[in-house]
Design brief:
Blueprint: H1 3-30, H2 39-55, E1 78-80, E2 90-91, H3 94-108, E3 113-119, E4 122-129, E5 132-138, E6 144-146, H4 149-152, E7 173-181, H5 184-196, H6 205-213, H7 218-222, E8 227-237, H8 244-253, E9 263-265, H9 268-281, E10 289-296, H10 299-305, E11 315-319, E12 324-336, E13 341-353, E14 356-362, H11 366-372, E15 379-383, E16 391-395, E17 421-422, E18 430-431, H12 439-449, H13 462-469, H14 490-493, E19 497-499, E20 510-511, E21 516-517, E22 519-521, H15 538-549, H16 555-560, H17 569-579, H18 582-587, H19 590-594, H20 600-611, H21 614-625, E23 649-653, H22 661-670, E24 674-676, E25 685-688, H23 694-702, E26 706-708, H24 712-718
Parallel strand pairs: 2-11, 23-24, 23-25, 25-26
Antiparallel strand pairs: 1-6, 3-9, 3-10, 4-5, 4-7, 7-8, 10-11, 12-13, 12-15, 13-14, 13-18, 15-16, 17-18, 19-22, 20-21
Helix pairs in contact: 1-2, 12-13
Bound molecules: 2-(butylsulfanyl)adenosine (IVH).
2-(butylsulfanyl)adenosine binds next to β3, β8 and β11.
Amino acid sequence: MSTEDTDFDTARERHEQLAAEITEHRRRYYLDAAPTVSDAEFDRLMHELIDIETAHPELKSADSPTEQVGTFSEVFTPVRHLEKMLSLQDVFSEEEVRTWAERVTPEAGGCAYLCELKIDGLAVDLVYEGGRLVRAATRGDGVTGEDVSANVATIAVVPQRLEPADGFPVPSLLEVRGEVYFPVADFTKLNESQVAAGKAPFANPRNAAAGSLRQKDPAGTAERPLSFIAHGLGALEGFVPDSQSHSYAALEAWGLPVSPYYKLVESVDDVFDYIHEYGGRRHDLVHQIDGIVVKLDDIVIQRRLGATSRTPRWAVAYKFPPEEVNTRLLDIKVSIGRTGRATPYAVLEPVTVAGSEVEFATLHNADQVAAKGVKIGDTVVVRKAGDVIPEIVAPVAAARDGSERDFAMPETCPECGRALAPAAEGDVDLRCPNARSCPGQLRERLAYLSGRSCFDVDRMGYIACTALVQPLEPSEPVLRDEAGVFDLRMEDLLSIKVVVRDPDSGLPKIDPKTEREKVVTYFAKQPDKKTGEIEPKKNAVEMLENLEKVKSQPLWRVVNALSIRHVGPVAAQALAGHFADMDRIIEATEEELAAIDGVGPTIAAAVKDWFTVDWHRAIVERWREAGVRMRDEAPEPGEELPQTLEGATVVITGAIPGYTRETAAAAVKARGAKVASSVSKKTSALVAGESAGSKYDKAERFGVPIVAGEDFERFLEDGLPEGDESDPE
Ligand code: IVH
């Protein structure tokens, strides 16, 4: 076991101990009015708990005392639950799920596992007497909660009366447990309106659910789109379920919302499949989830296993690695994109989110910064969902100390100093108007055109592009726009000097001898000491060789490389696929362009507009003269590609050389196949590029043919691999 594991286990143990202790102190203070510790001692325990949760956010759960501030308020009346509301034992690895399963096997051998989603909301307890909702309460400390009946009455999906149904007569007493949640889709809007009203935004949908439910005035709750899903029963008279799934069938029959995603499975391996499936789909759901709950389905077995003081032995919660963490927003800077857009971005105190280090996050535009209500110096919630770009969810308003300051959008371009302006009236985005030679815009365009979805020029990375347009004084930039990129000569490159930067921090490296920034010629070796002769470095030779090779790339890549606003790989493929000739694209009318599938009026206008600019057309002409391909031989206009994958369903995962996720999907569709997001027994093939994850294992298990990333183009040409006739059943 590594030191890290040991540290984590120690932290977990201490966390559990503290949580139980604090909960007990709260109970004594609020309910018995007989506290046994001083306020200062209570605060010390609480701070220790907060410190542990800051270091290990995965230990923080909905029922942690840190989440229960003001549980017993003056606004809501305390109520005792009919039966204690238990919590769940959290586990953080598959190994721990297996250990739990092995531990319960002697009692539960052969019993099905019920897998369901762990909804990140607020637990509530509903009591129905004679089929009528008589009370709703928050969980509180599990024994006593707060009466939120009037607030819950405003949640449309919670029935006031139970419906009798065939085989499920309405029981005389029913205590239902479930989760009130705030739909993810409405969360951003809610925070925007909070900020607009001068109120603090919520850090996440769970806090939004709690805040919305615990409104003093239930009319306030009614305005929030709260929803509810039932996940268990408490006290019960007049109905005897024999399994958890049986109780869900009854709840559903009576008109209570039950999750559509629960699944009964036979083996622990099936449990892992469920965990993987919803690990991949967790962002496609209406509510946030923070894990998977596994319950033994049989109620007799549940009873036999019983519970500890806090958690049942018959269930376990597998927690996903956290995708949201708190960190400091050190600064907000502005970057200039390849189409001139000025985008504010957050400079963060580096943190690990979902397994990777995050140091920057986009903030889109000044309106977004204002709408999110973030200030420089704030503690912020940072989210990185799957392979999505990191973003700031919200500030932690409670952590402010008054030193935070508002962000103001600069008036001039940070790269070239020209005044920023909206491209059109009413546009929220500001742009640098110096499109041709703003070094920032040109650097980004060059990096894009040399990248994977355009010419794919090996050895022409971001630093090389920077060196070409922003060399160190006194050398002059070799390129003033991208027209000359295919005419670069070695002698142009040899004198280019750049500052050496630390790849991690981005800060200039200091030469210990001169105590100045370390400067090197980027494309040339040190001059020969004797002869003074200057030789190119390998990267320069290879970059020029590669620039030569990529001139024959297909037309859509050339179109994409022009950095026309709104034209990405998908639109470029649509244009090249339709016209197969750059000149025909240039000559096409706006109507003709707009009529193409995948183009439409906005893109058509942008394309037309782009070609009216002299220096834009000059780019195309210089590239043409340099030998860049401006025409695809096949297919003829209107003619389809051979439908080699007709009727197939293909899943794409990992990095495919020369393609983005979108262009790979478009290429597969152009061959007549459907593209699906998850592997099932019906998948015809999995295209698995580098770093393919759980989809690969699943395809192997189901016997789905796997196509390696480097064989992708052969796959497009030849169709499904031989010998894998799909089962006629
Ligand atoms: S069952 C005795 N099922 O997670 C079983 N709880 O960390 C107790 N939660 O307080 C709960 N989704 O608020 C159960 N599908 C689910 C759940 C779920 C979310 C919450 C619940 C509980 C907390 C424990």
